[in-house]
Amino acid sequence: MTKSKRVAVLPGDGIGVDVLREAVRLLEAIDKKRPLSLDLWHLDLGADRYLRDKTTLPKETFEEVRDTCGAILLGALGDPRVPGLEHARDILFGFRFGLELYANVRTVKCLHDKLCPLKAKPASAVNFTVFRENTEGVYVGVGGQVRKGTPDEIAINEDINTRKGVERILRAAFDFAKEHGKTRVHMADKSNAMKHAHELWYRAFFELAKEYPGIEARHVYVDALCLYMIQEPENLQVIVTNNLFGDIVTDLGAALQGGLGMAPSGNINWARRGPALFEPVHGSAPPLAGKDLANPFASALTVGMMLDYLGYAGIESAIEDSVRDCVVAEECTRDVGGSLGTRASMDKLIARVSDRL
Ligand SMILES: NC(=O)c1ccc[n+]([C@@H]2O[C@H](COP(=O)([O-])OP(=O)(O)OC[C@H]3O[C@@H](n4cnc5c(N)ncnc54)[C@H](O)[C@@H]3O)[C@@H](O)[C@H]2O)c1
């Protein structure tokens, strides 16, 4: 099915604004070389808007995005002026849950040895994709507190796992493996301790694996996965796990690829495949905001992921190769070994991407 070329652009807060400004410049530069015919729809949502008129995610905006857009490109949400993060929760969870973007897909690929923190491994050892369940688990918010503030206080957060929810993220991981010529999928849980919820993951994983005969299904406890990610990342191709574990292991993954400034992600409804939400893995980093310090490469790689999703072939790899070249030439921000600011780094990247297209 052809996807809509309308893209909702939502910079959000902090460095989200800085990096999305650059991401849009990259899109405009690509469009000059390879016409994309995208219709960019800039959404005025985030902490500023919330503080101005208490708007988070209006129902009409959500519905228009749902009905007319092929993708959402998001910067980051989170602002110290809104300590309760009400706007961030409404917007992020509004899209994730409302559009049933159940597959949070995070590419963990280290682009150059300079970025690899593992002393005995080359960058090529770090190249896998994490499928994090994005709509269930402890993030559903089921729970409560009783006798709050007393010595007898009880605090509970329930871990919600449904057969449907577990099965669809497992299927997305297997389908991705099959489509991309991968031969192995690791499923990470804690079924030795969480006997009820994660036994469901374990059982569903091996049942589903029978439908994918060419793909080896390996179970791993999440604590052991953290060890393998450092000791033998070359054995990992596709990892699928629940919402909470996925959140944690993908930050470890970001460290393996050179830091949060280098990590892209997509939030996808794998069955319907649209609209999907793309965002750099990092947050709004308030101390860096507005200072021309944020690394724009995670958002550039996110643009590549989004364009691939929208059906534009060859651009994602041109961006990835150009990011690698920029890092090697030290035409990048300080967090990845350069001395340039946000804008100048993107200028260099745009020049390289334009040469490649
Ligand atoms: N999806 C999202 O929008 C999202 C994700 C994570 C955190 N947040 C929010 O962001 C705010 C800050 O959270 P945090 O500090 O825990 O995480 P963060 O990702 O904003 O920052 C963590 C660290 O990484 C560095 N960093 C992050 N992105 C960078 C970049 N592009 N270039 C250079 N350095 C970069 C920061 O300086 C900081 O040291 C909070 O309000 C949090 O809730 C939002």
What does the secondary structure layout of this molecule look like, with pairings?
Elements: E1 6-12, H1 15-33, E2 39-42, H2 47-53, H3 59-68, E3 71-76, H4 86-98, E4 103-109, E5 127-133, E6 143-146, E7 154-157, H5 163-179, E8 184-189, H6 197-209, E9 216-221, H7 222-231, E10 238-241, H8 243-256, E11 264-268, E12 276-280, H9 297-309, H10 315-328, H11 342-356
Parallel strand pairs: 1-2, 1-3, 3-12, 5-10, 8-9, 8-10
Antiparallel strand pairs: 4-5, 4-11, 6-7, 11-12
Bound molecules: nicotinamide-adenine-dinucleotide.
Nicotinamide-adenine-dinucleotide (NAD) binds at residues 15, 19, 76-78, 85, 92, 260-261, 279, 282-285, 288, 294-295, 298, 335.
What are its keywords?
357 residues, alpha/beta, Isopropylmalate Dehydrogenase, ten-stranded mixed beta sheet, two-stranded antiparallel sheet, 11 helices, 41% helix, 18% strand, globular, binds nicotinamide-adenine-dinucleotide
